[in-house]
């Protein structure tokens, strides 16, 4: 199976990933404003990797926009076309035994598999954390082609076409207090609908249990986090067209007293 390649790659690189992610966490935390270093300082959010300001593509091309944000509580990212929201990324679920909010760095992709002139517009990445909001915009220009109506799209086999699975919303880093439940998102698109698995930091496929559960949307829930849960978790997708995977580094923290 194609998914085995994900398992093998993950197994051989996991130690390097853990070391790199620990260094990344130090770098990310050092870039946070001083007033946000404590878990108990309140809500904040910042888009630290915005989408490109302008993108030009031809009709029929595949297009992806990427946006990354960091915040506490863990932010969600929505995409807007002009002023209309076009994604449905849920707010992180929380089950906190502590007054200390979690912190996360999250990523989102906006995927359009076949561009048409109607897609030309200004798209906004909107990151929300509690009541705090940050935004970044992209102007998409679509050239060299004509608009197509429903009948033309159907006859050209564009509607309903099979395409690669892609993860569209996930956390690259998730930090929360030991004892809390952690919810790691893995929203996706793909046709046919892809199969989804999660791998633990030991590269083993995670099965549903008292410790773990996974929703139909790909979300992994880890109950009562312990220090031993720290590491890189992999969400892997596969359908008949191809595969995709992302990693979330889970970092259990001691709560402030």
From TrEMBL:
Gene3D superfamilies: Immunoglobulins (2.60.40.10). The keyword Disulfide bond applies. Keywords: Disulfide bond, Immunoglobulin domain, Repeat, Signal. InterPro entries: Ig-like_dom (IPR007110), Ig-like_dom_sf (IPR036179), Ig-like_fold (IPR013783), Ig_I-set (IPR013098), Ig_sub (IPR003599), Ig_sub2 (IPR003598), Neural/epithelial_adhesion (IPR051170). Residues 50-143, 165-247 form the Ig-like domain. Pfam families: I-set, Ig_3. It comes from the Eukaryota. The keyword NAD does not apply. SUPFAM superfamilies: Immunoglobulin. Residues 1-19 form the signal peptide. SMART domains: IG, IGc2. Coiled coil: none annotated. PANTHER family: CTX-RELATED TYPE I TRANSMEMBRANE PROTEIN, DPR-INTERACTING PROTEIN ETA, ISOFORM B-RELATED. This is Ig-like domain-containing protein. It comes from Psylliodes chrysocephalus.
